[in-house]
Specification:
- Pfam families: 60KD_IMP, YidC_periplas.
- It is found in: Cell inner membrane; Cell membrane.
- The protein has twelve helices and 19 strands.
- The protein is elongated, with a radius of gyration of 30 Å.
- Helix content is 36%, strand content 26%.
- It has helices at 3-27, 231-236, 310-316, 330-347, 350-364, 366-381, 383-393, 397-411, 420-437, 462-477, 485-502, 507-533; strands at 64-68, 72-77, 83-92, 100-107, 110-119, 140-142, 149-158, 161-170, 175-184, 190-201, 216-220, 227-229, 240-243, 249-253, 257-263, 269-276, 279-285, 289-291, 296-307.
- By secondary structure, the chain is of the alpha+beta class.
- A hairpin with a 5-residue loop joins strand 2 (72-77) and strand 3 (83-92).
């Protein structure tokens, strides 16, 4: 197998990979809910009126209080205590923009909010238009220099029960604790449970064939570490899963960012989805608690609202970092991302880190590359003997196959030696593709010159054109035994096809492929010179 056939294999594998990913995004089947013990399933909170799915915040007492830390700016509605806006202060909505990225929003036509409340016999979140009107001491709070934590208590009293809903934000953290402290002075027992869900307008999946991003729900349970549950899945069937040990979370994810609710200290929590009109909910309903007269209780959940930062997410909840979806090759992609981050910490520039990573990966695979070209050279040396064998044997394929294998054995040649390295390289390329695609660290990160965002396509298509030219040079430098005119045309067209695909790829990925080709040219030159000295290389 020669270089040009290898390039064809890479091309077919790449196109198949892209088409498979796009097909998967449209055909991902809904999972079957876990069977639950009779009577153990809690219903989803029923405060929302299915005939009127509008938010319903029309009270004159409604206020939006603003809470700002170094990384988050939240807007919290005093009606119900819902988080209706979440701005990520360190991430611009667009490159060079002064406006922060708005993850949660409550705008016309695009609602994405984090709701939480109390339901049950003595619940205070009764319907979409009957939510508690909390009292607050101030409407604007900012984390000051030297301050590590903000606590925002919101109070409400009804029927002799005092409720304090407290939001806890910490410096440098995208995890927000939501605590209910309840003091029952009603003269009788009080029973209720906490719910917390994310509500968003039903969206399409987004993405493209070259950048198939996901926009939808996801969850984790004790039985399933990570599972996507798309808007289409939610529309087909409501999800209802029991978190026996209380470990799990429900999330809405998108490219680079995620929001998630994590129950705390609540075995038996129900994880649910539902769709009301054009609004989809995914969340958790914690089990009811009964508080005796004169007693107090605390119910707690954590809201993550921020970028997909794996270390912070893993520290917030088990498996939450898996929303950084590396696909089935995660066991390769995750170490590659870790190595890339380590290199970036040294060289500072993410583009330089990608270049260094390319040299490391290709350097580690040099023995395979050398074996590939050596095998190809030996195969070329055998071509005259193989041609003579074909003329002597004719159309007897069985005899031809037997004598070819005897010849390979005698000459100590592995006919698959040139193909195996390519097969081993493809998982690394695919893994790196996902590692770069899912790395929020590359978002709006510049390289140099005209490459101001490694997560976006090259605005002038210079890198894809250079990549195509490098592929063309590899073809020209690689001797070939292909004589079929159709195969020759395919080989000639391959760099053009690759260039066309890479026009829309993130420039960071194109940079990797370009540098990889340059390394290939260098390695190819060195290996061919060594083979020429051994008399194995001939054009």
């Amino acid at each position: 197998m020669d270089s040009q056939r290898n390039i064809l294999l890479i091309g077919l594998a790449l196109v198949s990979f892209l088409l498979f990913n796009q097909w998967q995004s449209y055909k991902n089947p809904a999972p079957v809910p876990t069977q639950q013990a009779q009577g153990s399933t809690l219903p989803a909170p029923s405060f929302a009126d299915e005939h009127d799915p509008a938010p319903g915040h029309t009270s004159a007492a409604e206020k939006i209080i603003t809470v700002k830390t170094d990384v988050l700016t939240l807007g919290i509605n005093t009606i119900g205590g819902d988080v209706v806006t979440a701005d990520l202060n360190e991430y611009a909505i667009e490159q060079d923009s002064a406006d922060p990225f708005e993850l949660l929003k409550d705008s016309q036509g695009h609602q994405f909010i984090a709701q939480s409340g109390l339901v049950g016999p003595q619940g205070i979140d009764l319907s979409s238009t009957d939510r508690p009107a909390y009292q607050v001491s101030t409407e604007n709070l900012t984390l000051q220099d030297g301050q590590d934590e903000l606590r925002i208590p919101m109070t409400f009293t009804a029927n002799g029960i005092n409720y304090v809903k407290t939001f806890v934000l910490k410096r440098g953290s995208y995890a927000v604790d939501v605590e209910y402290n309840i003091d029952n002075q009603s003269g009788q027992n009080a029973t209720f449970g906490m719910y917390a869900h994310l509500r968003q307008n039903v969206q399409d999946k987004g993405g493209s064939i070259t950048m198939p991003t996901y926009n939808g729900g996801a969850y984790s349970t004790q039985d399933t570490r990570y599972k996507k549950y798309s808007f289409e899945d939610m529309q087909d069937r409501n999800l209802s899963l029991n978190l026996t040990d209380g470990q799990g979370w429900a999330a809405m994810i998108q490219h680079y960012f995620a929001a998630a609710w994590i129950p705390r200290e609540a075995p038996g929590t129900n994880l649910y989805t539902r769709v009301i009109g054009n609004l989809a909910d995914i969340g958790v309903r914690m089990p009811n608690q009964t508080i005796g007269n004169g007693q107090t209780a605390e119910l707690k959940a954590t809201l993550w609202a921020g970028p997909k930062l794996q270390d912070q997410m893993a520290a917030t909840a088990p498996n939450l970092d898996l929303v950084v979806d590396y696909g089935w090759l995660w066991f390769i992609a995750k170490p590659l991302h870790t190595l890339l981050s380590f290199i970036q910490g040294i060289v500072v520039n993410w583009g330089l880190a990608i270049i260094c990573l390319t040299f490391i990966v290709r350097g580690a695979m040099y023995p395979l590359t050398k074996a590939q070209y050596t095998s190809m050279a030996k195969m070329r040396m055998l071509q005259p003997k193989l041609q003579a064998m074909r003329e002597r044997i004719g159309d007897d394929r069985q005899r031809m196959s037997q004598e070819m294998m005897e010849l390979y054995k005698k000459e100590k040649v592995n006919p698959l030696g040139g193909c195996l390295p390519i097969i081993l390289q493809m998982p690394i390329f695919i893994s790196l593709y996902w590692a770069l695609m899912e790395s929020v660290e590359l978002r709006h990160s510049p390289f140099f010159g005209w490459i101001t965002d490694l997560s976006a396509q090259d605005p002038y298509y210079i890198l894809p054109l250079l990549m195509g030219a490098s592929m063309f040079l590899i073809q020209k430098m690689s001797p070939t035994t292909v004589t079929d005119p159709m195969q020759q045309k395919i080989m000639t067209f391959m760099p053009v096809m690759f260039t066309f695909f890479f026009l829309w790829f993130p420039s960071g990925l194109v940079l990797y492929w370009l540098v990889s080709n340059i390394v290939t040219l260098i390695q190819q030159t060195l290996i061919y010179r060594a083979l020429e000295k051994k008399g194995l290389h001939s054009k």
